[in-house]
Write a structure and sequence with these properties.
Length: about 425
């Protein structure tokens, strides 16, 4: 990091030059002076406008409009999907819809991909992919008598081109990978790996949970076939907010997803006797959408777009570079190792620090008002929120972690279950 200094005044200098600092007031502030929130890769903070918008929806659209408000609500999954596509995903209109959860969307798309690649009976993913992805794919393989082929992945470095190439053959129907690894933050080269998958005649499906809103995503340019992603992390849409689902335009009429619900039906309100899928991306809807959650996705997307993804990415890199520099200066001598790629071009928006007592350290930080999380086997995972987190907060958090590690003051902290996601 250029001109790095471990003095707190250096962090204050960086904060003074931060053009995104003004966005901090755009979020509900749960005692910012007492809490350092470094878990945006698990749950993003609440935007003020989202809070007001949901209140408006409850009071006016539901409270006053009642069922009449469905005239507008019914189009939200596709409208907000197009907004996400344009502003966050590099996807042309008509290819993204907001619906269901990541788990359900992985199931829908993987099942459809297997049907499309008839005669191929292998699904490929990696052994460090997020658990819900692996579990869903394992379940599909068991139900359909297919093979789930797991690539062994370096936990810190992510999926390698060589390992993927060795797993591909003419039996592979679909490959599902995470764009940013949930544990280490390793950022995959989507375009390069997608091309490799296509050369094997398989479909490329990407999990964007830790990348949408954190790093630039260009689904169309990368040639991605399918994608899913959650919105409650960097898009700041709240716990349980609906997920995104992407299907490349030319595949939409060829894939048939397995959950035939009435929102995916052509001429929905004719209430016909048989299922006839709607044209385009609407065919990948299923049941009644989560309207409050979709509105929160809309507001979160709008806020990120206002800040600008290039600016968000630049600050994210600066924050995590600074964090790593402090870790090298203070924490490595105290038994830590940086367990994320050091090259910013290969790193998403969070950093993992390895330590034998990571779980206890994470709990001790939480009790001190520094919100991080823990990931097995021995990682403290730190996810700055570019629109909220200051460089001085990074300094303060790392300084406290240094003190805890050096004094072993965390040793008496009782173990607790790790936080979700």
């Amino acid at each position: 990091m250029t001109n790095f200094s471990a003095d707190r005044s250096y962090a204050q200098t960086l904060d003074a030059a931060d053009h995104l600092a003004r966005f901090r007031d755009r979020f509900v502030q749960p005692g910012w002076d007492d809490v350092i929130y470094l878990n945006g890769n698990s749950l993003g903070p609440l935007p003020v406008r989202t809070q007001a918008r949901i209140a408006e929806l409850v009071d006016q659209e539901w409270g006053v409009g009642l069922v009449r408000s469905w005239d507008r609500w019914i189009h939200l999954p596709r409208q907000v999907g197009d907004m996400m596509g344009e502003l966050l995903l590099g996807a042309a209109p008509g290819q993204v819809v907001v619906c269901d959860s990541v788990t359900i969307n992985v199931f829908k798309l993987a099942w459809a991909a297997l049907d499309f690649r008839s005669g191929r009976d292998v699904i490929v993913t990696d052994d460090d992919n997020f658990p819900t992805d692996r579990y869903v794919l394992e379940g599909i393989a068991a139900q359909r008598g297919c093979e789930l082929r797991l690539i062994h992945t370096d936990v810190d470095e992510g999926v390698s081109e060589r390992a993927l190439a060795e797993a591909l053959d003419d039996r592979v129907a679909v490959v599902e990978l995470s764009h940013v690894a949930y544990r280490s933050g390793a950022l995959a080269d989507m375009a390069e790996l997608t091309e490799l998958i296509h050369r094997a005649g398989a479909l490329a499906m990407w999990d964007l949970c830790h990348s949408v809103g954190a790093v630039p995503v260009e689904l169309d340019a990368a040639g991605a076939d399918l994608a899913v992603g959650c919105t409650y992390k960097y898009v700041n849409a709240g716990p349980g907010a609906p997920a995104l689902l992407y299907v490349r335009d030319e595949l939409q009429h060829q894939l048939r997803q397995p959950i035939w619900g009435w929102f995916g039906q052509r001429d929905q309100f004719e209430m016909g006797p048989r299922y006839d899928p709607a044209p385009g991306i609407s065919a990948f809807l299923a049941g009644t959408p989560d309207i409050m959650g979709t509105v929160a996705v809309e507001e979160g997307t709008r806020l990120l777009a206002e800040a600008g993804m290039p600016q968000l990415r630049a600050k994210s890199i600066a924050l995590t570079d600074y964090l790593i520099a402090l870790a090298d200066e203070w924490l490595v001598p105290n038994g830590f190792a940086v367990a994320s790629p050091r090259d910013a071009a290969r790193r998403g928006g969070h950093v993992s620090l390895q330590h034998d007592d990571a779980h206890q350290l994470s709990q001790a930080l939480l009790r001190a008002g520094i919100v991080v999380d823990y990931r097995t086997p021995d990682r403290v995972r730190i996810g700055p929120v570019p629109l909220v987190t200051s460089f001085t907060q990074i300094w303060d958090a790392m300084d406290r972690l240094r003190e805890m590690a050096a004094s072993k003051s965390y040793a008496d902290v009782p173990p607790e279950q790790p936080l979700v996601s």
